[in-house]
Amino acid sequence: MIDQPIQPPRRTHFIDVADGVIRAGRKLGAIDPALLDKNALLDGAMQATGLDDFGDDWFERPFDALLDSVKGEARLNAAGDLSAMKQFHHILRDRLYAQMWFKRHPEILARPLRNPVVIVGPMRSGTTRLHRLLAGDKRFAHLRSFETISPVPRPEFEQVLAGEKKDFRPKLASRIMKVARLANPRTLSIHPTGPYEPEEELGLLVASMWSMKHDAQWHVPSYAQWCENEDPVPAYRHMANLLRLIGWSQQESSLRPWILKTPQHMLDLPALLEVFPDARLIFTHRDPKQFVASAASLAWNQQIIYSDHCDAARTGREWLGKTATMIERMRSSRDLIPANRMIDIQYEDMESDWRGTMERVYRFLGFDMAPAITAMQRYLDRSARLKRRPHRYSLEQFGLREQEVSERFADYTETYGISTGTPISDAKRLRSGA
């Protein structure tokens, strides 16, 4: 008997139904076709808000590249192109509102962003866990999930600050998350979250049409290649200004350092360090056999929602190459960072002794860990409740072999002393390594 190849998961029936409804609605004229045209999208955002200042127009360059790639390569289904159009509208509207706030309250842009703590590591290498453990410490500032989905408050937000209204953004985030879970319930096990959970700042880079979020969401290889040759400093400057706006909206003390993290920073360390020259960096490391498979699984589980033409082997090759580029760029950029401003953390050390590992982190940051231990344990307990099923994945699902991945990253694992002894298989229950 010939063994059948292990197949990655299929998308849910919910998406098939939604896609069919949208297609039928378009045939009947009840739903307009998605219009993925830059000028039309810009005009639509301006009409919706009554505003016309998008800020630095650099974002139009990655936007052009992204739209070309989406239309030429992503092969979106009806649900996918409708979702893309709404996503772009949301981003453009937020850019307009951001400029409105900066003009209405010039003090926002004067807020300092001192000594941020930035967690840098491959996708699925333990960055989320480390980020959320630190975010529980009230001595640091952090983004909440609803703020990365909707970084910019609406024009009536001053009434929220006055206690006259509730901020609608957490409710909107909750609705988006419910739809996401209907579209693919596996998202809850891959990346457990909620509207108020600490979250990464990837959405703040998306605000400039910049980030590998697009690679994970859609098949857009020419956009990814374009980004590799572009200087993203303008995107990081806008991200910093959005952090200032969020800190102002939280009524957060500007003396508290921000806790930041997103795998995007592995590609963009020079830009990050130019905008945040006093950043302290925590690098996370994990066996590449684990995080390459997990990253491919994460991308696959998103792309199957938006396209009917996903190819698992292609996804595996893309994320193997993407991961290699991330590590290569991270390693070459570390020479820019003084040794006393960075520390390396192993995923396996966090698994075996999270408290001892966090003590190392706190010594590096110059903080006493004792006041934060209760909050950290509370997060770990809450995380266990949020995660209802394990994230299952394998290299084989995506046409990759363990030996191939091990050889590709042998120098990386040797240089950073990464444990590589754990094989992965489809049947094994693996703990989430977001």
From TrEMBL:
SUPFAM superfamilies: P-loop containing nucleoside triphosphate hydrolases. It comes from the Bacteria. It comes from Qipengyuania citrea. It holds the Pfam family Sulfotransfer_3. InterPro entries: P-loop_NTPase, Stf3_sulfotransferase. This is Sulfotransferase.
